[in-house]
Structure formats: structure tokens, C-alpha cells
């Protein structure tokens, strides 16, 4: 174990991050997740998605929150953190609700059941990979949105961190962004949201059913990496904000919240405005 790793280990123990008192050799899950060149193994990635995210010289608050959210979504009580700088690699058991800030690259953090992982190979970025449930929480903005955001980040730092461009190129958005209803994939979750708008404004769907259906389809759309922009993106954002002022459960209604009729009027006006462009 290197001096840096020993110092980091002492820091983690003092901060209460590490549940066990000592590091152990990297386990089979960590070994199965990576090739020798420290990239995710294709066999391990089967059924999973990957999104690059910006990270500085160490894990800070934003990526730490992603790790915690992913763990909660898949019911992981702890995560295994492997220092890839050690030879052989050593692993520490960290509580899922711990403070992950301060971890340096190269490192791999993964859930014990292999549902999710964060590979932090070098300064500048990390790769988040996992099952749909893990990714929907850890990359809540959607995989394609995260990939598009990372591409812009890589371009902005091209002179200082030229290696980020190759990372962005290796993880392009899987779908193009849709700006009009006619562009939307009819088999996608965004199409379900458009169908809900039609049904609700035509009086064929109740307000609670519309709200429940919209949130469910929105989560699926984000998990599928669907991206919206332009007028269509503006419409969906508007409906999102309208629903923020509506309580499905009448017992939870606050002063100023929309009732069922108010929701139908507000959504109908937004939908009509979009179609009249």
C-alpha cells in the first residue's frame, strides 16, 4: 500500500466513511468489472449503460451525490471502493450514506451486487455505469443528456485536458434530440407523454391518472436517454412546472395549489399553445 493510500485510508477511517478497519485485496466483482487497461469489461457491461461526468482532481459533492442516489435506488447498504493505484489493488467497504468526497483517482467504486459502478481513472472525469435502476437515480438527467453535457464540457476544456475529447467521442448520445412532436420515436416514453397530453386535454383521462402517468413516463424517458429540445422541450418543461403545483392526494394540497380542474386548464393551455406555433 502506498503512502498516499495509507494517508487516505486514515482520513476515511477518521471521517467514519470506512465501515471496516482495514483494506482488503480487490474482490472478484472489481476484477470482473475491469479489463487490465482499467476500462469497463464488455461482459460486465451487458445490460448496463455508461455515462461520463465531470470530476476534478478528487470526487466532490456532485459525483458523491450521484453515488449515494444510485446506491439507494438499488438498495445497496454499502459500496466497495478499490484503489487502482495499489499493487495489488486494495478495497475498502464504505457505507452507502457516507461522504465520498476526497477520493482520488485511479479508483473504482461499485455495489457488491454489481448493479452499479463509478470508475474514476484520472483527473477530469468519471464513468458511471449500471443497471437501469441505478442509472435512473445516479444520472437522473438522463444518459444522453449527461453525454451531451459532457461533450460540451470536453470542448470547453480542450486545451487544458485534451484527453477528455476522446472520452466524449467514445460515449456519444445514443439518440438525437427531438424538437417537435412529429420527430418523437413512437415506441419511446416521450410518445407516451404526448399521448397523455392528448387524452387529458380531451377529457379521456383523469387528473390523478395524468399526473401518475406523466411522472412514470418522464422517469422512463430519462432512463432511456431520450432528449428533448426546442419547442417540445419547452412544452415538457412547462408541464413539469405545472405539475409541481398539483397534489394528487387532496390531503396534501397546499394553499395556491391547482385542483383537478385547474390542472386541466393549465395543461390544456400549454398544449394548445404548442400546437398553434
Structural topology:
Elements: H1 3-15, E1 24-25, H2 28-33, H3 42-45, E2 49-55, H4 61-74, E3 78-83, E4 90-95, E5 107-110, E6 116-122, E7 124-130, H5 132-138, H6 143-156, H7 163-170, H8 189-201, H9 207-223, H10 230-244, H11 260-275
Antiparallel strand pairs: 1-4, 2-7, 3-4, 3-5, 5-6, 6-7
Helix pairs in contact: 4-5, 5-9, 6-7, 8-9, 8-11, 10-11
**Series of H and E elements:** HEHHEHEEEEEHHHHHHH
Proportion of strand residues: 5-15%
Main β-sheet: number of strands, strand sense, barrel status? Answer: 7 strands, antiparallel
Question: Helix tally?
Answer: 11
Helix content: 40-55%
- Terminal CA distance reads 64 Å
Radius of gyration: 22 Å
Mean pLDDT equals: 86
What spatial form do the alpha-carbon principal axes imply? elongated
Uncertain parts? 1-22
Order of strands across the biggest sheet? 1-4-3-5-6-7-2
In terms of structural class, how would the helical and strand content be classed? alpha+beta
Number of E-type strands:
7
Keywords summarizing the entry:
277 residues; alpha+beta; 46% helix; elongated; disordered N terminus
Q: Would you summarize the structure shown here?
A:
The chain is 46% helix and 14% strand.
Describe this structure in words.
Helix content is 46%, strand content 14%. The protein is built from eleven helices and seven strands. The N terminus is likely disordered.
Amino acid at each position: 500500500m502506498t503512502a498516499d493510500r495509507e494517508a487516505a485510508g486514515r482520513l476515511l477511517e477518521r471521517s467514519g466513511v470506512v465501515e471496516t478497519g482495514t483494506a482488503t485485496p480487490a474482490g472478484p466483482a472489481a476484477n470482473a468489472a475491469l479489463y487490465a487497461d482499467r476500462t469497463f469489461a464488455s461482459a460486465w457491461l451487458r445490460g448496463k449503460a455508461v455515462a461520463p461526468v465531470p470530476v476534478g482532481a478528487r470526487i466532490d459533492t456532485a459525483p458523491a451525490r450521484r453515488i449515494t442516489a444510485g446506491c439507494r435506488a438499488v438498495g445497496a447498504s454499502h459500496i466497495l471502493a478499490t484503489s487502482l493505484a495499489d499493487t495489488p489493488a486494495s478495497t475498502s467497504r464504505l457505507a452507502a450514506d457516507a461522504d465520498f468526497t476526497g477520493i482520488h483517482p485511479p479508483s473504482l467504486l461499485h455495489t457488491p451486487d454489481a448493479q452499479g459502478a463509478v470508475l474514476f481513472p484520472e483527473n477530469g472525469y468519471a464513468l458511471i455505469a449500471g443497471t437501469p435502476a441505478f442509472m435512473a437515480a445516479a444520472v437522473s438527467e438522463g444518459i444522453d443528456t449527461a453525454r451531451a453535457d459532457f461533450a460540451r464540457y470536453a470542448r470547453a476544456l480542450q486545451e487544458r485536458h485534451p484527453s477528455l475529447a476522446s472520452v466524449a467521442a467514445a460515449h456519444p448520445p445514443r439518440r438525437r434530440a427531438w424538437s417537435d412532436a412529429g420527430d418523437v420515436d413512437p415506441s419511446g416514453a416521450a410518445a407516451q407523454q404526448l399521448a397523455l397530453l392528448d387524452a387529458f386535454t380531451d377529457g379521456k383521462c383523469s387528473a390523478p391518472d395524468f399526473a401518475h402517468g406523466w411522472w412514470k413516463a418522464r422517469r422512463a424517458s430519462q432512463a432511456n436517454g431520450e432528449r428533448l429540445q426546442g419547442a417540445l422541450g419547452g412544452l415538457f418543461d412547462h408541464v413539469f412546472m405545472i405539475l409541481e403545483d398539483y397534489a394528487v392526494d387532496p390531503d396534501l394540497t397546499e394553499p395556491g395549489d391547482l385542483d383537478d380542474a385547474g390542472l386541466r386548464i393549465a395543461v390544456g393551455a400549454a398544449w394548445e399553445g404548442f400546437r398553434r406555433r
